[in-house]
Amino acid sequence: MSIEQFMANFSGFIWNWPVTALCLCSGLFFSLRFLFVQFTALPHALELVKGKYDNPDEQGEITHFQALSAALSGTIGLGNISGVAIAIGMGGPGAVFWMWVIGVFGMATKFVECTLGTHYRDVDKETGEVRGGGMYYIEKGLGNKWKPLAIFFAVAMCLASFGSASLFQTNQAASALNEYFNVDVLLTGVVMFVLTIFVIVGGIKRIGNVASKVVPIMCVIYVLGAVTICLMNFSMLPQAFAVIFHDAFTGTAAAGGVLGIVIKKGVQRAIFSNEAGIGSAPVVHAAVKTDYPVREGIVAAVGPLIDTVIVCTATALVIILSGNYGTEMYVPLDTHKVGFEKRVSSVLPTGWTIDDVAKSPAQATDLQSFRDGVKLLHFKGNSETPKTIALPKMPITDNSIRFSYFKEKGDMALTILKENGMPIGTLSLAEGAGILMKDGKQVAHIEGYNWDNRWSSYVLHIDSPEAAGLGEGEQVLLQLT
Fold it and tell me: Could you write out the DSSP letters of every residue in 284-314?
């Protein structure tokens, strides 16, 4: 078993229903117990962030704003960009709704853990340096007998800082720069290493100072970009929100169409995004200059609001408006909802293989998607030895379906057949559009997208089942040749 497989199995075992349910229930309990402090104390939190109550004579090393910025610097980008894409891809658009839910309840969880982290922190009387976090309030709050748990927590936080923060974020940045700008991944790693060293050697003061300047700019640029895209597609926004709320309680766009997957993926990615309940944020917030721990808890509660509710929503709307989500795609094309092709049986004809998505070329913007969220269908052959692959059967009540393919040379053709295998007609895909006529009537037509004359994606519309000789309830079978 490879290291990657081991980590995937181990994280899948830990990061399942018990942990996600515990985080969700904790947020609900704290919200009720403290009378929804995330809302009632929000005005006071904004005043604290603006520095209205900053006092340089109080114990600590950084301001409320710097602490919030430092905490957000470790989560923005980690979960609310790639994490949202994963949540939508695996759980469908409905996962966004459950991200909002855990984001709101996570504000109460963040309030509690950061209040405790600040209350039970250690302050060096000689240097004024501050140390705090989950390991401190576990031992001091629960008693010395819980010290083994505090040690375990500290070790887990160290390991998590390497995995979820250092490795994951550096990998994503290096991969993106390499794919779109052809920047060598080693160069990206070295540059990020040097920049990180310059920041962290200055301790929490320099981290807070740098984060307070970089994070606001980063958030504003990203959100403004998303808002611009939303305004350019303003007429589609109601439909985007409708899809989110509809799928939140149906799971129709989730893998397998299971509602539980929608909820779990939404909750998991939200926790991953704002880390409410994970316990790393109190380490940063404990360094704040304040003699009133509850104040920092109130400030910390703003984090999930910015991170999960605002930034995650911006990411989600861009993805949904583009039509790229879930294993069932809904591409706004005319008045139709287009279903993306589903992966075929694992038993494929000779010459056909299923490759990892990572092996596929970069997609163009106007090519909505050639992926089904997990794998991509690939054929290596030549025009002299054509292969035929059957796409899924399509009920005649669904008048359109999307399919995609990659070609190295030659042209492909789409054959429409009845359930018994009798061909209805063939459409050439060479021109990217075509009409199938039978007995003077239009049976079907296709609309296509083509990029670099290799990646092709089409939408097939069955215009007249009657003209095709299809009976009520009969399905059609599609073949790419």
Answer: HHTTBS-S-HHHHHHHHTHHHIIIIIIIHHH
Which segments of 45-151 are extended strands (E)? 122-123, 130-131
End-to-end CA distance of the chain: 38
Higher-pLDDT residue of 175 and 163 is 175
CA-based nearest residue to 340, from 259, 454, 412, 253: 253
Q: Mean pLDDT throughout 356-379?
A: 40
Is 296 within 8 Å of 114 (Cβ atoms)? Answer: yes
Q: How far is CA 351 from CA 13, 41, 107, 277, in A?
A: 36, 63, 52, 49
> Residue 343: what pLDDT?
37
- pLDDT at residue 375 above 70? no
Residue 88 and residue 269: Cα distance in Å, rounded?
10
pLDDT band, residue 31 (cuts 50/70/90) = very high
Give the span between the Cα atoms of 405 and 386, in whole angstroms: 14
SS3 of residue 205 by DSSP:
helix
Starting from the edge strand earliest in sequence, which strands make up the sheet with 475-480, in order?
389-395, 475-480, 413-418, 423-428
Is 153 in contact with 120 (CB distance < 8 Å)? no
Smallest CA-to-CA distance from 272 within 73, 154, 103, 467 is with 103
Average pLDDT score over the chain:
76
Please report which confidence band the pLDDT of residue 394 belongs to, taking 50, 70 and 90 as the band edges.
low
Q: What is the maximum span of the chain, computed from C-alpha positions, in angstroms?
A: 94
218 Cβ contact list (under 8 Å, min separation 6)? 76, 77
Whole-number Å distance between alpha carbons of 411 and 370: 17
Q: Determine the Cα–Cα distance for residues 394 and 400; give it in Å rounded to an integer.
A: 8
CB 419 within 8 A of CB 382: no
The answer to whether residues 360 and 310 touch, using CB atoms and an 8 Å cutoff, is: no
* Residue 472, Cβ density class (10 Å: 0-12 exposed, 13-18 middle, ≥19 buried): exposed
What is the rounded CA–CA span in Å between residue 141 and residue 119?
10
Angle between helices 185-200 and 168-181 (to 10 degrees): 140
Q: Given this model, what pLDDT does residue 268 score?
A: 75
More confident residue, 87 or 138: 138
| Global pTM value | 0.66
DSSP assignment of 269-283, as one string? HHHHHH-TTTS-HHH
Structure tokens at 61: 């090393």
Cβ neighbours for 314, distance < 8 A, ≥ 6 positions apart: 222, 223, 226, 227
With a CB cutoff of 8 Å and minimum separation 6, the contacts of 384 are none
